[in-house]
Design goal:
By secondary structure, the protein is of the alpha+beta class. Helices cover 32% and strands 25% of the residues. Strands 1-2-3-4-5 form a five-stranded mixed beta sheet, with helices on both faces.
Length: 151
């Protein structure tokens, strides 16, 4: 079983929307939102944000298996570092029936390869308790000086 990952483009936006919906709906009794409206909005959002949110699609034996996103941001320049680009890994998702086959690992490797190619200063990820060991195995470390404000 071969896992392949590629950068997704506008033509993939509907598939990405379906994956995002499936991720959100997983484990819920019943979705509170209108699926068709969400798919339409997310498809448009994807196309509109391709400059700052880079989507990746994973396939296992030709079947869509998962997705991951690299959000790009620029920080304020400093006198010694004029270009301060950073990234954030977002919405990594592998469909349940294809988990534990290396799909997530290959997806994350592709995202981090893109981060290296773009010479990002650092890459963050906001992980839940279940996913934290996955990111630690991939080389992420517990952040220091990370504070969060919520209104």
């Amino acid at each position: 079983m071969a896992v392949t990952v590629r950068r997704a483009g506008p033509v993939d936006a509907p598939a990405l929307a379906r994956l995002r919906w499936r991720c959100w709906a997983e484990g819920r009794d019943g979705p509170a939102a209108d699926r068709d409206v969400y798919l339409e909005v997310f498809t448009s959002w994807t196309v509109d944000h391709l400059a700052t949110h880079l989507p990746f699609l994973a396939e296992l034996d030709g079947r869509i298996a998962g997705m991951a996103w690299l959000m790009l941001a620029e920080r304020v320049p400093s006198p010694d570092t004029l270009s301060r680009r950073t990234g954030d890994v977002q919405s990594v998702y592998v469909i349940p029936e294809l988990r534990d086959r290396g799909v997530g690992r290959v997806l994350l490797e592709a995202v981090l390869a893109e981060a290296r190619l773009r010479e990002l200063e650092h890459v963050t990820v906001h992980a839940n308790d279940r996913a934290t060991p996955f990111y630690l195995r991939a080389g992420f470390v517990e952040g220091r000086n990370w504070l969060e404000w919520r209104p």
